Amino acid sequence: MANTWFESVAEAHRRAKKRLPASVYGALVAGSEQGMTLRDNIDAYNEIGFAPHIGDLPDERDLSTTVMGQDISMPVLISPTGVQAVHPDGELAVARASAARGTAMGLSSFGSRPIEDVVEANPQTFFQTYWVGDREDIAGRMQRAKDAGAKGMIVTLDWTFSEGRDWGSPSIPERLDLKTMARFAPQGMAHPRWLLRYLRAGHLPNLKTPNVDADPDPAAAPTFFGAYGEWMQTKQPRWEDISWMREQWDGPFMIKGVMRIDDAKRAVDAGATTISVSNHGGNNMDGTPATLRALPGIAEAVGDEVEVLLDGGVRRGSDVVKALCLGARAVMIGRAYLWGLAAEGQAGVENVLDILRSDIDSILLGLRRPSVRELTRDDIIVPPGFGEKLSSRTTGPAESVRA
Question: In what residue span(s) does the FMN hydroxy acid dehydrogenase domain sit (predicted)?
């Protein structure tokens, strides 16, 4: 039997690219316009160095922390991502893997598996939603998540329906009927391992979104593009709408997509218990700086009032540690675990989490820190002008100044 273990997230990425049909892989990589933000999310980590110690290094290191009321084994969570057609088990494989490794999972309302099944696989599940539909629709969606046992609510606010990629957007069908299957057959035949997985599972990739509706009946679920179309037609939320959402949810409440200090403060005023510094993985407004650059100013401004998380560009345990040194409580990973899922299913996601855990532990040793909770800015080398302090004003036009 072939060895399925891989030693880096980069290797998971290579396997995913090799095994996935071009359109599926293209959707996974994503990005927008020139891909500046996509690249900067990764490149920013390379500008930060470490200041290691020798002697008196801790024999044992504690990686555990608490996020949104949940004790987790390390400061890495699963970020919510849409329809996971890279593997037949989709979100269920990710839920089982994250549960096995003792961490929490964010489930997208655009995910392909019902929240009831995902919570059963990982009770430490947070449900993510957008402002889609009217208040009755949104309240029903949130109530369903609560009834299913979701431990927290994530509201993502940073999507601007950006279209167009210089390298071309992948062709994604709305549904897999006979005509569509015939059109995509050459891609499937060129990647027999991916196709064989679905044949063994006895079903085709699921392109429906069963968590968008309050109705848990899978037959009533809209397609991804059906749900996306409704989202595009929904009027944009105001801050009072977000405050209303907070009132509907009596547990931990995260606002995801924060890149500015003034928005971070508004999120606190709206009742957020947690915010995620995020630019949607570079999938949105190209030219937005890396999340790591925006993190220090936001953490300094509101870190004493809410938990501050970060997502975007995390590929190594060293990335996690750098984010923690700059003020994050934990990070959320997206593409990294999707590559693991594409490469080896549940085992691949567990492999990715194990890589990050091992890396974090090794760096804690070198930094002479017995716990992730003791990391500080003194542990890293930050070049002058690194941080992006996006406006601290609560009203008025946008302003950006270098720290």
Answer: 1-385
